[in-house]
Each structure stands twice: as structure tokens, then as C-alpha cells.
User: What shape does this take?
Amino acid sequence: MVPWRATADGFVTQNNLDWYRRFAEGQPAALVVEATGVRDIPSGPLLRIGHDRFLPGLKQLVETVREASQGRTKLFIQIIDFLAVKRRPERAKYFERFLAITGGHRQRLSELTGYSHWATVDEQTVREFLFNAEDELIEQVLDARELEALRFGYRERVNDTHLSHIKELPQVLPNIFADAARRAREAGFDGVELHYAHAYTMAGFLSALNDRDDGYGGARENRGRLPLEVYRAVRESVGDDYVVGVRFLGDEVIAGGNRIDDAVYFGVEFAKAGFDYLSISKGGKFEDAEQPKIGQAVYPYTGQSGYECMPTTLSDERGPFSRSVPLVAQIKRAVNAARFATPIVATGGITTFDQAEAILRSGDADIIGMARQALADPDWFRKVKRGRGEEVRRCTYTNYCEALDQAHRQVTCKLWDRKDLDEPNLTMAEDGRRRLLPPRWENQA
Assistant: This one.
């Protein structure tokens, strides 16, 4: 998840450096830096790699991790593209400013009210009438996308080819991603992870909901076309001796979306193309997200697909543990059956050594990834290596951290963020109530 420690312009801060230094001290085999924007556009306190001016900070981040891990941890950076998502508007503002009044609205109003004057009245009269109308009438006058913009906030999709900048994505994204990957290599990262999962642009192209008619939607081979073109541009930019991985979904967990058979197909195609590893996630989509409050943006981890992406202890009989592993195993079997040895990464609700080891020994995955458990205890890796697993601070999967992410507040863990607040030289969160870094492991010897 994004820890929200960059500047408002996307530059690396001291808080970013301290954050990744603390994780590097645990000496995992690899760290993947948070989702980092490939475009040079405003995106709040999200790291960016869309221009060379970001390189000095990113280079410092690489150096920090290498020093803190004593060179034992490889450092990758996850790079993303995203489309516009607007905040849910006030009803008055939506009808006054955002809704484009069309002949279709006028015609439906005439049919529903029995008055023909709607065809000729001034636009302001139409807007005022709709603002004061009952929801039942509004639902018959507005189309599905307009209702969504009113109730959830406007959101772009890869299907919106009536918008020139969306139509042109296949022409512009390969070079944008390639330039970002070049900067990653120049900064000293050991590899890049192309983020094709969840609610980001590339996941939209892969989705079965992508019905573009320009050769980049519809059939699976067309939906996978741009993701593969992006990969080839990235590979050409960084060379064959540089790690390029991909994160994508084993199941979108939404109506009409991709299922495991789609993921198996894309997994084999990605392995065939030459990706160095495949990291599998699940869900995390806008389509089934809960309605946000007015003034807030829709968050793709609040519906059932969001639950499957970041499951909590409020769960079914399986609980939050390893819910994606069956999907990972199917993708791995298909990739191996196609005679590719591309490593497959399992993530999601993996917390103990025994759990991780069982997944590897069963052949369901080749690599284990952790996010929330690593947040709970960055020293997990060293503790386990030393046979001191009983000292691991285990994640309780309440998603306290995810709630902070949703609010775009600096992410911390409830297991440590209010501990030892009298510690000297402690860096506190902007709210003044939480420490920003986990306590150091005591009694390491």
C-alpha cells in the first residue's frame, strides 16, 4: 500500500528514506517500493518517476536501502498509471456545474412529465428541476454513468474512447512506461514491477469489461495487447539484463470481470513474453466499491473485491489467510505446463514461517511476498532466519493500516504506532499522535 510520505509534488522525503531504511534493516530478499506514478502529473503525496527531476531523491532511496540492508536486499520499484477519479460532488454542484444537459435528458423529461416544453426551455430551468426532482425520476432521466458520477464521483475508464486522451492510451503508454523504467535503472533500482492489477489503467485493459473496438479490447488477445506492448517497450529501454516483473489479478471478483481462466491465459502470455516474475493479487476494483461520503473519492478496497484483496479477521471460515494461493497455484501449473520456469509470487494474508514454507513446499508458488505482515514487523525475516519466530509481531489483519491509506494519511500499524512515544528523536505522524516507524528489535544478539 502507499504509505503517503512523499511531497505533494511526488518527491522523495526524509520520511520515505526512513521508512524504507527501517524495512531494509530487516534484510528481506527484496523490497518493492510503493506504487509510483509514471506520468509527470499532479497526484498528491504519491511517489513519481515521470521526469528526470525525480532521480536525485530516488537515487538516495536506493543508496539508503543498500546501506541499511548491508547489500542483502534487492530493491524494485512498482510503476503505475491511473485514470481520473473525482470526488463525490454535492448534489447542487453536480446539477449546476457538472452534468452536461443533452437532448436525451429533455426528451425523457417530456415523456416522464407529460410536458413538451422541456424541448425548448433554457438549460438553467432544466438544471433546477433536476436538482429538486425525486430520486425515482432522476434514475429515469440520467444514464448509468451520469448516475454514477452523481452518487460516487466521476471516474474515467479505458473504454471511454470518445475522450481523445483515453483513445490515445495505446499510442502513449508504452513510451511513458519505458521512460519510467529507464529512470528506475538509472536511479540504481534492481528491477521494476509493472502494476497491471487492481484499479489501475493497465488492469482496465486486461479486464473482461474492456470492450474497446480498436483492437485493444474485447477478446483476450486484444485485451492483453497493450500490456504486452508496454512490456516490450520497457524491455527495450532497460535491456535483457534487468529485472522486469508484473503484478496482475488472479480474479477481479466483480460481475463480468476476469476470472481464473483469464488469469491463466495472461500468465502464460506474460511468461512467454519474457517477464522475470509474475506476482498475483486478487480484487481491489472500483466497480463494487462502497459509496463514498460527499467530498471523498471512491475507494476500490471497500466492496467484496476489496475484501478479497485485503481480507480482514471479519471473515468466513477460511479467514484472511492465503486466500489467493489457490489462484496462484493454478497460474503456476499452467505456466510450468507451457514449459516456462518464470517464478510465481504468492501474496495476501501470509504471516507465519510455517504458512509460507508450506506454500513453497507444496509447489503452489516460488516466492512469498508480504505487505501487512512486513508492516507489522519489518524484522520478520531476520527473526525467522534465527529461529526466533515466537518473537514475531504478528499482523492481526484488522486493516487499521488500510483505513489510513483510504484517508490518504501516513500509514502506520496499530501494533506499534503508539508504543514508546517517549523514545528520543522520535518522528511523529502529522496528527501528532502516532510514531511513523516501528520500534527497533530489542535483544537481537
Remarks:
- The longest helix spans residues 169-187.
